[in-house]
Amino acid sequence: MEILKIAAFSDGDSGGNPAGVVIGDKLPTVETMQRVAAEVGFSETAFAAPLNSGWRVRYFSPESEVPFCGHATIALGAALALKFGAAEYALTLNGAEVTVSGEQDGHIIKAALQSPPTKSETAPDAMIDGALKLLGYRRDDLDTHIPPARANGGADHLILALKDRRKLAAMDYDLDAGRAFMNTHNIVTIALIVAETDTLFHARNAFASGGVLEDPATGAAAAAFAGYLRDINWTHDNVIDIIQGEDMGMRSLLRAEFSDKIGSSVRLSGTARIMK
Q1: How many helices (H) and strands (E) does the chain have?
Q2: Which has fewest Cβ within 10 Å: 173, 214, 220, 237?
């Protein structure tokens, strides 16, 4: 089994979120995919096999299967472009149909995906208070212009917007407590956001549900967040940029583009680099 290691949403030749990619004639067993994902140790590994004119894809973190992973999809798009050429590829996930495209530009690979449909709802007070306690924040640390929300762009995330970039940099929490919290509320990550401008955001994503303290780039959360901004009529000009992973030393760049249609998918794009 060949396992490619690709950093998605990279900042040129550095940064990005490492993902494993396995492309085969058929998908391995669930037990094998879970074991390989744990051995690879990245936040997600994507497994792909031919299905009709496209690809059947499943995603595994070191501890569990996840319904959708943006950065691993970008990594898969890069891998497919390297193996089969520049194209748009149809992907069948466990509960959605999406596409990913990839093309090589010198030593950099460009990739873009169309997320599953998006949706959002107000986060319950108990969830908000529990997350704030977990992370060591208070209610007055929150940016009231972007209220807390449960948002989905292929998977559920809790969105918490902070007022102060320094508070974002100070994020810390107990991994076991975070895992219990996320599993109790059936969310994949807690996405912490700070707005620098109306269209530029800084983000950190706690990913204890997958056994990872933090993700340096989280495409699924970016799609969910973009859809949520559309839902609350944020001034966005249908495109936002997100800087993530900076506080981890893994600066990652994500762009989200979307229409005004509530619930429609989000286009996420970035570059990817092959890891040695």
Answers
A1: 6, 17
A2: 237
Residue 40 falls inside a structural domain: yes
* Domain span at 169: 119-264
DSSP 135: H
Q: For residue 218, which of 175, 260, 262, 250 has the smallest C-alpha distance?
A: 250
Listed in sequence order, the residues at least 6 apart from 166 whose beta carbon sits closer than 8 Å to its beta carbon are none
How confident is the model over 91-104, as pLDDT tens digits?
999 989 999 999 99
Residue 237, judged by CB atoms within 10 A of its CB (0-12, 13-18, 19+), counts as exposed
Residues 159 and 217 in one domain: yes
Last residue of a domain, one of 60, 79, 114: 114
Q: What is the pLDDT of residues 145-192, one digit of tens each?
A: 999 999 999 999 999 999 999 999 999 999 999 999 999 999 999 999
232 & 255 share domain: yes
What pTM, to 2 d.p., does this model score?
0.92
